[in-house]
Amino acid sequence: MDEADLIGFLLDLLEDEERQAVEEKLAESSAVQQQLDALAHLMRLLSVLEDDPPPDLAARTVEALLVSATTLPRALNASPRNLPLSVHLRNQPLPEEADYLEPSESLKPGRNYSATRFTWRFVDILVLGVLVLLIGALIPPAVLQARHWERVLACQNNLRRFHVCLHQYAQQNTYFPIAEERGPLAHAGVFVLLLRHSGLWDHDLTVTCPAKIHARSRPQEELPTLREFTQWGSCHDDDLRRKYEEWRYRLSGCYAYHLGYRDDRQQLCGLTLQDDDCLPILGDRPTRPEEDPDWFAKNSPNHSGRGQNVLYVGGHVKFQRCRSCGHARDDIYLNRQRQLAAGCDRYDVVLAPSEASPTGQGALLAQGR
Prior knowledge:
By secondary structure, the protein is α+β, with helices and mostly antiparallel strands. The protein has three domains: 3-46, no CATH class; 59-107, no CATH class; 158-352, no CATH class. 43% of the residues lie in helices and 8% in strands. It is built from twelve helices and nine strands. The protein has a five-stranded antiparallel β-sheet with strand order 6-5-4-1-9, with helices on one face. A two-stranded antiparallel sheet has the order 2-3. A two-stranded antiparallel ribbon has the order 7-8. α1 (3-10) crosses α3, α2 packs across α3 (30-49) and α11 (226-234) crosses α12 (238-250). The two termini are 28 Å apart.
């Protein structure tokens, strides 16, 4: 089992469902229990090694500095009068000794005493230059990392607003929005039109991920109504059909919605409020086949491929660093048959981009690629 999960279990950092999964593994396998015991032993050793510093460390450090300071006059060709106060106190009586010492080079007659005594050496300039280069190399990555997480959090807040609308829709209709089996509304992005048609759309919502800076700066276009979209998909006018195809790709924008699943009778079903809270329902959309030939293995492009935000039925949002997550740790963008289509059962989650259909028509198989 993954050591990260076991360490999180020992430190009590796991979510309830993750902790339950670890406990089940511990009950089933003695090897996992031995692995957990070994990690617990190592963590106890770490706590033992964290000793406090010796109580006389400060005194010994000061004494070592005082001893080394006695060599400074000879090394720097400086007068004893310029030594630190600690050296004066250590070598009493200093005033009487100073009367018999020759003045240093810096105190000889004829020198300009108003000038500073410190002169820059080549080594000093070189060290300073190296420090400046190191600081300059460290600052940009830190700034970029902070901006990345700022956009991740902004995207999570947007998904939480989506959950409020989706939860209200499910309360009114007993189930979350779902695409139809066939017809003009047989696409994942239709959930946006269903929310707007029900009067539950929040005007602060956006289908553009906040991480997309350039897309966010553009003014949002007015979405078509559910009736208009249905008419465009049912008519034979070339202009309206072209408009329908364009909006079919754009309805859910940067996000991917739950495409439904097949029950025992192969009927298309949607999620309800009674379903498991740890089932994903909405998230950053995956890479499309036409965007990347390795689309079936890539993270969402919304966050530079570092991962994707996923909204769960329970309302919590997580930033997942890989596509395998959810209830069964499966690929959230493909079903168990490695197809961009409806899930094979309730726990086979498929978050699909706006144009995807539950039947998988026009979707490329990732199997065998």
